[in-house]
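Methods — Computational structure assignment.
A single polypeptide chain was analysed. Its primary sequence is given first, followed by the predicted tertiary structure written as structure tokens.
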Amino acid sequence: MWSQMFANPVDWQALLLALLATLGLAWAAAIVARRIASSTLYSFIGDAIPPSSALVRTPLRLVAIITFIIVGVLVLFPALELTGVRPRVSGEMREATIWLRGSGLRILLIVLIAYGLSRSVHLLVRRFERELKGGTRLNSREQAKRARTVGFVVDKMATVLIAGVATVTVLYELGVNVAPVLTGAGIAGIALGFGAQWLIKDLLSGLCLILEDQVRVGDDATINGTDGLVEQINLRTIVLRDVRGTVHVFANGAIQTLANQSKDFSHYVIDLNISYKEDPDRVSEIVREVDRDLRTNPEFASIMLEPSQIHGVVGFSDWSMQLRIRLKTVPQQQWKVGREFRKRLRKALNRHGVAVPYPALRARIEPPGSSPSAGRH
């Protein structure tokens, strides 16, 4: 058995020495490569992602494994020859060995580089999002939302581009003529452009949607009459989840109306019905008292951007007049502030004796036997 594997009598000490040297050198190279990759990775991401995260551990582990395999393959046969052990290599095995040490290693490196580039883009996007989220100002939160939106699209586009280039390069190393593949892809792209104009329209609309910063992931928006929270913005579609949890998917090219309710800031409007017997100035002062009290609460002070604006009496009905109040808050916090403001306002109006207006009906009872028109002349 051993005579079939080796061309000379086996010196077990020399064989063991060659194997140990190969394993030791491959192990040391794997450790060095992991440390270099780790320092390079953290120079990009900083402390945005903890070391225990799978986003960090998986690429580093993969770098170590691939380095160990590459160094082991490159060093094994030279180590055997240096120790006087000559493996018996057939023609087919020799060709396979040459291919593995040539094209095989290049394919492995291509896959490793493609994976590393893809993960690097993903980690960079995560780092930018983390840094922008660290701010407490309104502008920082808005920048973080835009970074999350643009980063999602950049990550997907970069992954597709890197995977495409790596696939073509691997096919070339395998001996496949990639010229017909590229030509066919170009023809297919032209045919797709003519046959699927709606798809091109969706892609261009999505690109404009992102570049113009019309809406971001996390915004409250109304699209084609449907309200909800924006969960995803892709080049072709936008995903909206309404208050009942229903997911709505809109093609970007089919968006006719888009209303962003949380761009930079939000407003909450209250049309307070008050009786005609009440003094609007007195009620306005009660509103200001509630506003001052609410803005002293630490839970609401940080999300209320300005004192409440009292626009005055904006309408009359048969039984009441409307006093308009507008609250300015950080994005997506208008409902929380509005609910608390309404509750405190109702209690304050009760304390000050401001009655709740309601429609009143007057009924007149006619004496028996009298006609409805009696007494009109």
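Note: Residues 1-5 have pLDDT under 50 and may be disordered.
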